Amino acid sequence: MEYKIGTGARCAVIGYGSWATAIVGLLAANGQRVGWYVRNPEVLESLRTEGRNPRYLSDLEFDRDRIAPSDDLDGVVHDADIVILATPSAYLKDFLAPLTVPLRDKFIVSAIKGIVPGDYQTVVEYIHDHYGLSYKQIGLFTGPSHAEEVSRGKLSYLTVVCTDPGNAQRIGEKFAGGNIRLSYSTDLYGIEYGAILKNIYALAVGLAVGLGYGDNFLAVLIANSAGEMTRFLEESYPDKRDTQVSAYLGDLLVTCYSVYSRNRRLGLLIGHGCTVKSALNEMTMVAEGYFAADCIRHINARHKVDMPIAETVYRVLYEGAPARRSMQELTTKLI
Ligand SMILES: NC(=O)C1=CN([C@@H]2O[C@H](COP(=O)(O)OP(=O)(O)OC[C@H]3O[C@@H](n4cnc5c(N)ncnc54)[C@H](OP(=O)(O)O)[C@@H]3O)[C@@H](O)[C@H]2O)C=CC1
Ligand SMILES: O=C(CO)COP(=O)(O)O
């Protein structure tokens, strides 16, 4: 089914973590009134009375006339044309469980960088299969984009991905302005999987830093990660794509070196000697790479791509392989 987003399309955001909050900030700054599904009563109350999310990016103050926070998922979705999903992938099904309003006349944008656990599907694949939506009415909002920087107005280049470039432009217009620059792509498969894989590689980098490896080795690890990502995309879904651009390589780089990266931090804690369980307990935000390491291994059983870095992360996280020895073994497989 063809789907054309209209000029006056209304947006709604599902989720109230840091990325959802930053996204609402961008949309609201562009003068739009944004529907916002917030199921946490404390967050909802604070948004309504003070215009702030007390749990995530609490410095960001919203113009209350431009946000419509609500715990009525059906109402929020009903009133929107573009529904932006911004929950961690692990909780997406849980967030969408109360939905009874059909999605067939909506355009869904995933801002999520993860796989739906249990289903072993990306968010795009999951929405397509479970809600019967055409790939023509599903898009991505992605790129190197730590919420902390986006919300503080730091220059950021983001990418909108849709099979129809006209729809991508319409979505992009909602975010453009200020310090946001936009790129466009039609590579739904490659950009979504690339964003999932980079979380696993950032975890590997965190591990290496925690174990005491230096910048020379980190450069090798990241270069090999970029190669592994490209290999996975080319072998699992060949297409004409340039994985050197920001939505693939840029996102890998920022997640590997940024102090804001949750995936890098999880790896760092384990590299410093925490058990996986205690490192996960220590995290105050979600590291998607933890779930992705298991899901990608499952998916790659089909494709059989050589992925030594993702495999190392999997063994450390899920099989109790010692981090130091695993990283040492990995060093013999890199070029
Ligand atoms: N943060 C960023 O810079 C960016 C994030 N993304 C992607 O956006 C998605 C959302 O991430 P982000 O906003 O950062 O996540 P956060 O860690 O900031 O927020 C987590 C959200 O998930 C909820 N949550 C946490 N644990 C549970 C649980 N056990 N059950 C149900 N809900 C839970 C939290 O609710 P509560 O507070 O009530 O626990 C909160 O709403 C991810 O896919 C991420 O990769 C993409 C680009 C940038
Ligand atoms: O996707 C991100 C930056 O582009 C966020 O990465 P982390 O989840 O590791 O913080």
UniProtKB/TrEMBL annotation:
Residue positions binding NADPH: S18, W19, R39, Y56, K113, A147, R262, V286, E288
GO molecular function, one term: NAD binding
UniProt cross-references to Pfam families, sorted A to Z: NAD_Gly3P_dh_C (PF07479), NAD_Gly3P_dh_N (PF01210)
Domain Glycerol-3-phosphate dehydrogenase NAD-dependent N-terminal positions: 12-165
PANTHER family: GLYCEROL-3-PHOSPHATE DEHYDROGENASE (PTHR11728), GLYCEROL-3-PHOSPHATE DEHYDROGENASE [NAD(+)] 2, CHLOROPLASTIC (PTHR11728:SF1)
Gene giving rise to this polypeptide: gpsA
Gene Ontology annotations of biological process type: carbohydrate metabolic process; glycerol-3-phosphate biosynthetic process; glycerol-3-phosphate catabolic process; glycerophospholipid metabolic process; phospholipid biosynthetic process
Sequence positions that bind substrate: K113, R262, N263
Domain Glycerol-3-phosphate dehydrogenase NAD-dependent C-terminal as annotated: residue spans: 187-326
Localization (cell): Cytoplasm
GO cellular component, one term: cytosol
Keyword Cytoplasm in record: yes
The name this protein goes by in its record: Glycerol-3-phosphate dehydrogenase [NAD(P)+]
Pathway the protein acts in: Membrane lipid metabolism; glycerophospholipid metabolism
PROSITE patterns: NAD_G3PDH (PS00957)
Keywords: Cytoplasm, Lipid biosynthesis, Lipid metabolism, NAD, NADP, Nucleotide-binding, Oxidoreductase, Phospholipid biosynthesis, Phospholipid metabolism
Family: Belongs to the NAD-dependent glycerol-3-phosphate dehydrogenase family.
Active site: K198 (proton acceptor)
